[in-house]
């Protein structure tokens, strides 16, 4: 994927964008949120941003399923965002959120990552991708204000007790157990350019040379028909669960330095040597303590955010006038 394409995906993923070009829509009122309205054009802008983002990342059934999920929750999310922004303004969150500094850092990070020299070049790159720079900045400000409000109203009140962290670690050892790891070397014989008889003759020749004391590494350089040929048979290190199941079953009970028999796969045959095995290991509490704290924090935060939003909605005026704005398209 090109840097231009990745750049667009990053910008889309970080924001709700208004594109410079789009279809003309009838601008009716979709919903009233206290003293603000959500119009059909507001909704369409959000919808099209999500659609373009998903299209850039997903295909086929995966795209269709995720699009339906996002579409079903879109209006509710827009209402929630309006409520959070209204509350952030009411509480003057901007005065303590360092919005400008955060946006400056965000832009500088994107420029550095994608080798963009100046702010003007950054703006031109956005325009070339069909993105309105001012709208993008406005959305970043809104995102920062919402996050700052959530932290102020919810995050500050969350305290993770170390006893809870210890209990979670003790009750979920599977989450903190590193699987066995296998460092492998191999010889590969392809079935794509030869008959099975020819392939088996080649495998028999390799077996004979191994029996005579030949080293797999040297024979891989001479006979192997995959990329491992140029690396003395090295095919890398794999954790249990990351390998092809057929290959994994063949190597998991080997002793270090031992060879499998020839393993048939759809494209040919592998002869594998287990160079090194790292046994399964339960990480220590100190290694995972911070991760557990973060996981428990996020769990508690989700509950508190849900409760906070429910309370915010109860004391707000919300009226949905058009439950399905896409009928205007």
Q: What is the architecture of the largest domain at the second tier of CATH? A: Orthogonal Bundle
What is the domain total for the residues?
A: 2
CATH superfamily annotation of the largest domain: Porin chaperone SurA, peptide-binding domain
Q: Runs with pLDDT <50, length 5+?
A: 16-25
Helix content: 55-70%
Average pLDDT score: 90
Instruction: Give the helices and strands as they follow along the chain.
Output: HEEHHHHHHHEEHHEHEEEHE
Total strand count, please? 9
What's the alpha carbon Rg, rounded to whole Å? 29 Å
- Number of helical stretches of at least 4 residues: 12
Question: Can you walk through the features of this model?
Answer:
The protein is elongated. A 4-stranded antiparallel β-sheet has the order 5-4-7-6, with helices on both faces. Helix 2 packs across helix 3 (60-90). It has 2 domains: 3-160 and 299-328, Triger factor/SurA peptide-binding fold, CATH 1.10.4030.10; 180-279, Chitinase A, domain 3 (Roll), CATH 3.10.50. The two termini are 32 Å apart. It is built from 12 helices and 9 strands. The protein has 329 residues and is of the alpha+beta class.
Entry summary:
This protein is α+β, with helices and mostly antiparallel strands. The chain has helices at residues 3-13, 40-57, 60-90, 94-97, 99-113, 119-128, 133-153, 162-171, 196-211, 216-223, 245-251, 285-314; strands spanning 29-33, 36-39, 177-178, 181-190, 234-239, 263-265, 268-278, 281-282, 318-320. The chain folds into 2 domains: 3-160 and 299-328, Triger factor/SurA peptide-binding fold; 180-279, Chitinase A, domain 3 (Roll), CATH 3.10.50.
